[in-house]
């Protein structure tokens, strides 16, 4: 990361001027869904700034709206934060401050800066005006302080129906900044809260609770995304007008957007409701659980956050940046193995039935610390049918009858003939094996293979992008941009050494790509792998 981005510059200045002795940031998710890559970026920024300047970073669950939040989301957010590798200094909840926030609302009423309004939500919207037209004062705007205090107390006591009354700040209905046209501070909601139960039936709005929570937690730099630019006016107005010691400052950076993806929880929910994906951990979306299931590592996600920087320009990041981050990590740090995704059988006619040879091979071409493993060589082997498909085109040096090819880590074989069924589909291929050590295999195509006897059945979930358009949200209908072929399932085999593989293990399947073990099907004993990312080689590119 650019360690001198504009937020860091501000912090350095503030510390030099001794405006603060210690800085404090916060990450404040609303527990109304699972975390996504954008949240990881926000966490990364807040957490690392605090760490690098010897400060602290709070996690605060913004649980001010009981209709949207759920306990399961709090649990999953905590789990994801931990998985990403962040140590949490302090977990807070906006609901911890409900009484204090209420008292600040009373203070605003007493200062004639807030009033209880009886307009309904439609009327409030109409009175607010638009960017082109000015707003109009509510007829309830000039109630006396005493009336407002009484009504607000009665709101809290549950004397009114939902939507009947609300508390609004008294700012300026003529303001060119829409949010300053008497924003709502509190509304009535008869909804049990996951932490405070039925203690409250009025709840503060985000803009009201957020700045107060920041101030109560002594946050120094409140970092958020650009769409909160206008809200900053209200943030500062509230803190200026209540008796509170700390006055945090808000700084905005541009939201993370990634090509061919959507991230907002609202839209992910839409995809689930429309049954385009089943769950939040679908490996085709950029939720943290989705990325984890796909096979992304915390390291690669942090690397990506670091490379995308902190700016004020709205932009859309290329998917290849994210893919390169995971490739770099997987290539260096994860073992190789052999998998046959489109199996076809080869019989080596000069190798006797029952013959078995053990070959010891390296788990990684460079990192010898990853050790070695055993593979088996027998009369029958699987290879990938795409190594045969262009049988008459040797432009890519594909094997043709009489051709010599090399089985990686083993021997050269020569294709003799092909056995097809009556529909012309290749059933098996008969070859002879040059069963001798120290063969010359310069200029000979090397292919991957697995002994039939020592193979394990596997399913490969091959993922492609979920959306066809670079910026799906720009299109008229999100649903129309769905790539209907974003998941293809293949039945194949992996080498026997993977029988001890654990869920989450990642491998480079040679000549294919990087895969992560997602689950083991107990019924069929199939290992189920998710494609993380394909290798970029001639063989792969031709077979997509
Ligand atoms: P969503 O649209 O997914 O609901 P949100 O901003 O409403 O996002 P919150 O739970 O309120 O989600 O977000 C917590 C923090 O994460 C906020 O500070 C928010 O600015 C930040 N954040 C959310 N999405 C992104 C993103 N795409 N890029 C950077 N930061 C983000
Ligand atoms: Mg939100």
From TrEMBL:
The UniProt keywords, alphabetically, are: Aminoacyl-tRNA synthetase, ATP-binding, Cytoplasm, Ligase, Nucleotide-binding, Protein biosynthesis
Q: Which PROSITE patterns match?
A: AA_TRNA_LIGASE_I
Q: Which GO terms describe its cellular component?
A: cytosol
EC supergroup of this enzyme: ligase
The Glutamyl/glutaminyl-tRNA synthetase class Ib catalytic domain extends over 22-331
Output the Pfam families linked to this UniProt entry.
tRNA-synt_1c, tRNA-synt_1c_C, tRNA-synt_1c_C2
* Domain named tRNA synthetases class I (E and Q) anti-codon binding: residues: 446-518
Recorded hits in Gene3D superfamilies, A to Z, give: HUPs, Ribosomal Protein L25, Chain P
User: Could you state a single Gene Ontology molecular function term?
Assistant: glutamine-tRNA ligase activity
According to its UniProt entry, one GO biological process term is: glutaminyl-tRNA aminoacylation
Q: Which reaction does it catalyse?
A: tRNA(Gln) + L-glutamine + ATP = L-glutaminyl-tRNA(Gln) + AMP + diphosphate
Keyword S-adenosyl-L-methionine in annotation: no
SUPFAM superfamilies reported in the protein's UniProt record: Nucleotidylyl transferase (SSF52374), Ribosomal protein L25-like (SSF50715)
Report the residue ranges that make up the Glutamyl/glutaminyl-tRNA synthetase class Ib anti-codon binding domain in this protein: 335-433
- The EC number(s) attached to this protein equal 6.1.1.18
**Record-stated family:** Belongs to the class-I aminoacyl-tRNA synthetase family.
> Which protein, by its recorded name, is this?
Glutamine--tRNA ligase
Tell me which species this is from.
Candidatus Purcelliella pentastirinorum
């Amino acid at each position: 990361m650019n360690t001198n981005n504009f937020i860091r510059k501000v912090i350095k200045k503030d510390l030099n001027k001794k405006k603060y002795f210690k800085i404090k940031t916060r990450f404040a998710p609303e527990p109304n869904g699972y975390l996504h890559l954008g949240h990881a970026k926000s966490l990364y920024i807040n957490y690392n700034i605090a760490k690098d300047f010897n400060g602290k970073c709070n996690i605060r669950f913004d649980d001010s709206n009981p209709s949207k939040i759920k306990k399961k989301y709090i649990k999953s957010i905590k789990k994801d934060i931990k998985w990403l590798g962040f140590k949490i200094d302090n977990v807070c909840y906006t609901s911890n401050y409900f009484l204090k926030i209420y008292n600040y609302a009373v203070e605003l009423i007493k200062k004639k800066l807030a009033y209880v309004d009886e307009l309904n939500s439609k009327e409030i919207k109409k009175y607010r005006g638009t960017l082109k037209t000015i707003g109009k004062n509510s007829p309830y705007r000039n109630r006396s302080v005493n009336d407002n205090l009484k009504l607000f107390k009665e709101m809290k006591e549950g004397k009114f129906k939902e939507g009947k009354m609300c508390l609004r700040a008294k700012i300026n209905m003529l303001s060119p900044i829409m949010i300053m046209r008497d924003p709502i501070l509190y509304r009535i909601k008869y909804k049990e809260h996951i932490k405070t139960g039925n203690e409250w039936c009025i709840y503060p709005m985000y803009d009201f609770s957020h700045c107060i929570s920041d101030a109560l937690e002594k946050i120094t730099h409140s970092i958020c995304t650009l769409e909160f630019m206008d809200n900053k006016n209200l943030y500062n107005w509230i803190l200026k007008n209540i008796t509170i010691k700390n006055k945090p400052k808000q700084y905005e950076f541009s939201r993370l957007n990634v090509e061919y993806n959507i991230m907002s929880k609202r839209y992910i929910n839409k995809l689930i409701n429309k049954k385009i994906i089943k769950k939040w951990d679908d490996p085709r979306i950029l939720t943290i659980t989705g990325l984890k299931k796909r096979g992304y590592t915390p390291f690669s996600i942090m690397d990506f956050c670091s490379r995308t920087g902190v700016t004020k320009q709205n932009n859309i990041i290329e998917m290849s940046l994210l893919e390169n981050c995971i490739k770099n990590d997987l290539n260096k740090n994860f073992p190789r193995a052999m998998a046959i995704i489109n199996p076809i059988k080869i019989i080596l006619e000069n190798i006797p039935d029952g013959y078995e040879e053990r070959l010891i091979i390296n788990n990684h071409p460079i990192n010898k610390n990853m050790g070695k493993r055993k593979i088996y060589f027998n009369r029958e082997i699987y290879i990938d049918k795409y190594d045969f498909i262009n049988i008459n085109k040797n432009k890519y040096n594909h094997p043709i009858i009489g051709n010599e090819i090399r089985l990686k880590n083993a021997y050269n074989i020569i294709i003799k003939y092909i056995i097809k069924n009556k529909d012309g589909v290749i059933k098996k291929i008969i070859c002879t094996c040059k069963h001798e050590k120290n063969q010359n295999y310069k200029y000979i195509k090397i292919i991957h293979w697995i002994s039939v006897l020592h193979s394990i059945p596997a399913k490969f979930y091959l993922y492609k992008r979920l959306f066809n358009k670079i910026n799906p949200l720009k299109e008229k209908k999100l649903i129309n941009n769905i790539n209907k072929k974003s998941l293809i399932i293949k039945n194949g085999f992996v080498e026997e050494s993977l029988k001890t593989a654990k869920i989450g293990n990642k491998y480079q399947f040679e000549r294919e790509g990087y895969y992560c073990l997602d689950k083991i099907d107990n019924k069929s004993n199939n290992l189920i792998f998710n494609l993380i990312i394909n290798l970029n080689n001639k063989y792969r590119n031709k077979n997509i």
